[in-house]
């Protein structure tokens, strides 16, 4: 079984985030896909800034690969409506379909474990009767798992795990 991880670093220290990755089995086989906006800074400090010099360098220190995917950032907001718009943008007619398919093909044929990264620490919000997505990386991860399970020619099952 292949696994797709998601992680949010919000309010973490550099060492805290690195330790969370070190606690995973085979961290050297993980490739992080940064799905934040290209110009994203961080209240955490420069180590968490977007790009190779920021969070990419932080991850490289512990042997984890980094892939910048700013095209898959959420420009719609984390409200229920915004996340529904984001999900619609991932569909075959949606504005994000091309970068979504590019990432899907990488994950589908990779011998690595992919991990979607953004700042939101808690990916789900509890409502009255269920947990709803609180972050676009949950929507993205669930859509990737759905598509990879049903695509012809890809015979692996992909599960999603949110690293706390």
Distance N to C terminus: 21 Å
Order of SSEs: EHEHEHHEEEHE
Number of helices: 5
Q: What's the domain count? A: 1
For the sheet with most strands, the description reads: 5 strands, parallel
Bulk shape: globular
Low-confidence stretches: none
Q: Give me the count of strands.
A: 7
Would you mind describing this structure in some detail?
- It is a single chain.
- By secondary structure, the protein is of the alpha/beta class.
- It has one domain (2-163).
- The protein has helices at 14-22, 52-60, 80-89, 97-109, 136-150, and strands at 2-8, 30-34, 65-68, 113-118, 124-126, 131-133, 158-163.
- A 5-stranded parallel sheet has the order 3-2-4-1-7, with helices on both faces.
- The longest helix has 15 residues, at 136-150.
What's a concise summary of this model?
This protein is α/β, with parallel strands linked by helices. It is built from five helices and seven strands; from the N terminus they run βαβαβααβββαβ.
